[in-house]
Amino acid sequence: MKCIFSLLLLLFAGGLASAQNIVQIEYYFDTDAGIGGNKIVSVTAATDGSFTFNPDVSALTKGYHMLYTRVKDSNNGWSQTVRRSVEVQPAPVTTTALTGEYSIDTDAGIGNNKAFSITRNAQDAGNFNISVTGVAAGYHTVYIRFKDAYGVWGHTIRRSIQVIPANNKLVSGEYFVDKDPGIGLGTAISLSAQTTDIAQQFAAQASSLTEGYHKLYVRFKDAAGFWSHTSRQSIEVIKQPGVIKIIAAEFFFKTDPGIGKGTKLTVPATSSDTLALAIPANAKSADIDTLYIRVRDNRDSTRWSYRAMKRMVKAAQTITFAAAATKKFGVADFDPGAKISSNMPLTYTSSDTTVASIVAGKVHLKKTGTTILSASQAGNISFKVATTVKQTLTVAKGDQTIAFAALPVKTYGSADFAVSATATSGLPVTFTSADTTIASIVNGKIHIKAAGKCNIKASQAGNSNYNAAKDSIQVLTINKTGQQIGFPAIPSLAVGAYDYTPTAIATSNLPLTYTSSNTAVATIINGRIHAVAPGTAIITATQAGNNNYTAAVAQTQTVTIIKGNQTIGFSEFQPVAYGAADFAPKAYATSGLPLSFSSSNTAIATIINGQVHITGAGTVRIIASQAGNTSYNAARDTSMLLTVSKASQTITFSVLPALQVGAADITPSAGSSSGLAVTFASSNTAIATIVNGKIHAVAGGSCTITASQTGNGNYNAAAAVKQTLTITKGSQVITFAALSPVTFGSADYSAGATASSGLTVSYTSSNNAVATIVNGLIHVTGVGTTNITASQAGNTGYNAATSVIKSLTVTKANQQITFADITPQPPGTADFSAGATASSGLAVNYTSSNPAVATIVNGLIHITGVGTANITAAQAGNAYYNAAASVVKTFTVTKAGQQITFATIPATPYLSADFAPGASSSSGLSITYTSSNTAVATIVNGLIHINGLGSSVITASQGGDATYNAAASVSQKLTVVKAKQTITFAVLAAKAYNAPDFDAAATASSGLPISYTSSNTAVATIVNGLIHITGSGTTVIQATQAGNTLYAAAPAINRTLTVNAKPAGTSVSTLAISSENNDSTAETRLAVKQAVSPNGDGINDVLVIDGITAYAENTVTLIDPNGLKIYERAGYDNQQVVFDGHSSVTGTMQKPGTYYYLITYKTTTGWKNLNGYFVLKY
């Protein structure tokens, strides 16, 4: 029992937007202090939105409490509150005694039933007896509950039991194969004496059966004459002679992995049908476990036997492990020395494998320190796991010595050599030199630096595992070494070339000395050969030696001096401008000889007296040459690029005189220093423009005239020069002819005035009631006179002109009425316009000569009766228009037509209520109806009244009135059919085998009598309208009503009737059948347990289908006694996907009773089906 428990909280849609954003959980017990006012815990949700936390229950009293939780996301949003019931229990009390109480069928309340006590065993289980004295034979329910050491009662456990009389013995039995011949007609099974055993063995005759699979059925009869349920078992008939031998075997513990998937056992080649098999000692199993074994014989390589079972209980074993002595690092691997009572092999481990590890069962030391050695034994099929024993091992530092051999005599210049000293610890040895001017230690090797003698010391300082070693010293002797001079041949040297460094070298790398045999040809300057003149000389190289080297033998080489080459150095030209003075190029020859020059483009530059003379702008190459002499070869020509840029120029521009708009264009006075033509531009073309090189005055004002010269191939553009130009305004006059009179309504027109400047003339009207100016045109607005003034206000180029005024007269306009003939209309037509219009656009007025036929209402013709009337259209004119001549039109009003709409009448059942036929007229006048057959239907108050079965024609009519003509009649056929009826039939309750005849209680809505039939007369028949039970099982009772002359037959209703097979006091025996090799074929056979009791006792709590795990692709469907599907799941596996009494359709627990299964599963040969039934009880 725990005082703190873990709660897993899952959030679904409708809680928080994202479970990954949960940051806090708030919880409380029993009473809510409000959001944020309870205990809050910070949490981090997993990717699936789940998390765990531990509520504190230390302040709660023992017993049941209500835990409330809610979570908060990162946006501070709280979820809905989740409620869970929890029980707070105190710490457990160790006791083996347990008390409780039980009752049968009726619970008298906690503490008021029959008490008992038990003693729990090691498996926390115990037994007690229930007294059934005085309890009637048959099925009963026993209720049990336990009380713990604190006096707290547990939940009530319910179990179904059957009480069987002591003298109720089996007296006979029978079996049959494949087909049931009927109770008492099977092959008899003889019992030697009456027995109460529920398991019987017998030999079934199979000689007449065909080879293959069959169904064997068995049932027994007790002393009271009652037969049991029929038990069914699949068997296989195999007709195969010969010696039977076991060829394969396998085993497993507790859970069957599937046929052929267990752990294989070795079967001797000489085996028979009986074999002793040994299970490997290292087979993994629990301390108390169940071992299963099955075998396969030589008759069929795919056929396995039933499983043999054995209960396995392991023995205990003890480890003895003495304390470990301190070890010095470096000792050989050693046995830890632990012993075990079972003599089983021990396993050792080290807590610190950096100090010591276990190698091949021995301790291997790896460094100083301490580690805990553990001795363990994992047990096997015969022994339990031994308790691990531990001992502490201490590892101390080890000792070491150095072995250092004598050093060989060396000469100066010898290569670095390794020293062969070693430490017994295997640690690296370091070396030092007593005189580092003679020898030093480089990367662990001796490096010779001079001739002489010195001591070399070998040391090992130790480490965390070894003490320091004693130093070891050896003497090193180094002698002088000889040297040689290598003097490669000297290449030919040219006069004037750089001095040459000879490549002779001494093996000692000491500096060499050189001499020349002919200083007129070559000399030695600072150790280099200097060529003086063409010819040959002998060069001698010598080296005198030093403290480490003896003198070297001198070496000679002959040197040949040849003519020298020369090159030309030519400095880059600085850019010059066109017109620059002649200048000399800056060039020289390395020989010092004089140079000559030439030009690649004489259009740009020529050479005159050794100087460059500019002839045009552009680029040119100046070429320098030197032909050589007796001492030097000719030099290679060298050229240098010369860039000649354009020359500058200036403009002279005289002051400009003032101009007036309209005056003649003038030519500016300007010129350039280069003599090139000058162009002009105006800064404001609204004041002045340049036309053909002359200045043209556009408007009064001032602007800048710019003189420019853009240059050419030899001259750059000149700097522009500007002069200011002043222009004064010109004068203008208006020409405006007299205006002719116009009538009102005339289109807008131009007044026709013009200005001498060509500028647009504007107008104004002195009387806007007569005319206005719109977009520069005269627009007539009324009748009368007005003065039109023409003006031109001038602009930047012209002064304003003097305005001119002309008088305009506007007179009234005439108008006409257009009035089309009026189309005759029937009464009821909506008011409408007569449609007359006046050319002036003014509204037209109407009058009617006959108000009995039509009147004028709001300017529209309104029909008042049938006949004719004259409609007069008139327009009286206004201030702008004269009156129009009136127009008269005759209008005729005629009677209106109407139509009847009458939809088809659907077939009508007898006894239907009176109903409206549903016809209507377009005039809205009422409809009258008649029936052609009053025996079928009559018309009552305008409704159809049903009198009998058959058909009648219903006619709809409308006779018209003063306004509407009569409508054409419309008929529809009415058919009266039989009345419908339904049956009400409640679900039938299960009945006992000997129940009396009873009424099924079905009724018809018509009140007519009900008839019944039974689908299985072996279960029930119908006698005088009552259900008569004839046997146990199920049958479908069908209720029908055939109808009569007025009612149609009612739809039949089916109800399943279940008749229980066991009257009270009757026992039914079950049969256990043993048959060799009928557990499976090449494909695993399925076997469905015949009973399910989901009461939590661990026995038959779920529907078990043996072998189902061999077929991952499967679907299990379960049907209840009423034929309804209550369960269907794919991938049934007896573990996660199981039927535990709950419907997969509704989720509710199902009632006890007989249920039917259909299993569809895929084998290697295709899909197969298996069906049958099982009993659900509690």
From TrEMBL:
Superkingdom in the source lineage: Bacteria
Signal peptide positions (record): 1-19
Cited Gene3D superfamilies: 2.60.40.1080
Keywords, sorted A to Z: Signal
InterPro entries: Invasin/intimin_cell_adhesion
Organism in which the protein naturally occurs: Mucilaginibacter celer
Protein name per UniProt: Gliding motility-associated C-terminal domain-containing protein
